[in-house]
Amino acid sequence: MTSRTRVRRLPEKASTDEAVLHAILDQAVVAHIGIVDEGQPFVLPVACARDGDRLLVHGSTGSRLMRQMAQGSPVCATVTLLDGMVLARSAFNSSMHYRSAMILGVAQPVDDDLEALRVLTDHLLPGRWEALREPTRKELAATLVLALPLREWSVKISDSPPEDEPDDLDDPVWAGVVPLRMVQGDPVPAPDLRFDLPAPVTQA
User: d(Cα 17, Cα 6) in Å, to the nearest integer?
Assistant: First the structure.
């Protein structure tokens, strides 16, 4: 933790355990990355995967975000896992259960694009890489894979029950937690699928 990543609002919800950071990133499939381009902030979603002590992201070589990152621009990456709605007896005290991580740093090109793409693909859909053909040279040339080191980060977790004002406890309003989770729906085959094959299963 640094002065830039110290949790100031509700610091009791902060965690400095690196294993907790890894667990959050290992469950996440989307990171939001913020950059500043000519004085204008932009925040864009990207698929992500943790690979050891770095966060992998990829995108088009024509992407403003990816170009800025590849040129060494400092970035802020955030991941949020929404675990539930915390329903209090007042709107003010209602909130959410979440696990969130913020990473600051400068991204670096990876040494092995193909291996990094495999890690990303199998994180999003375990075992999928082996079922696919290898990317062509043209596809690899159009794709940029970058790694953001996990050096400067913060983690914040909210998992408490609702905290109502004493005067609100007598109000006839339901209070508690409604858990939320991401689940896989029924797969929809492509209209041009030529084979009778089992659908893959996501990590959710």
Answer: 13
Give a yes or no: residue 73 inside a domain: yes
Q: Give dist(CA 53, CA 27) in Å, integer.
A: 15
pLDDT at 6: 86
Would 151 be classed as within a structural domain? yes
Q: How many domains does the chain have?
A: 1
What 178-182 contacts at long range (C-beta under 8 Å, 24+ apart), as own/partner pairs, is: 178/84, 178/85, 178/87, 179/83, 179/84, 179/97, 180/82, 180/83, 180/84, 180/85, 180/97, 181/83
CATH code (residue 84)? 2.30.110.10
Q: Which domain covers residue 117, as residue numbers? A: 11-159
CB 158 within 8 A of CB 97: yes
* Interatomic CA distance for residues 96 and 110, integer angstroms: 36
Whole-model pTM?
Answer: 0.91
Is the residue at 203 inside a domain? no
pLDDT in tens, 92-151: 999 999 999 999 999 999 999 999 999 999 999 999 999 999 999 999 999 999 999 999
Please report whether residue 112 resides in a domain. yes
Instruction: Render pLDDT for 20-78 as a digit per residue (tens, 0 to 9).
Output: 999 999 999 999 999 999 899 999 999 999 999 999 999 999 999 999 999 999 999 99
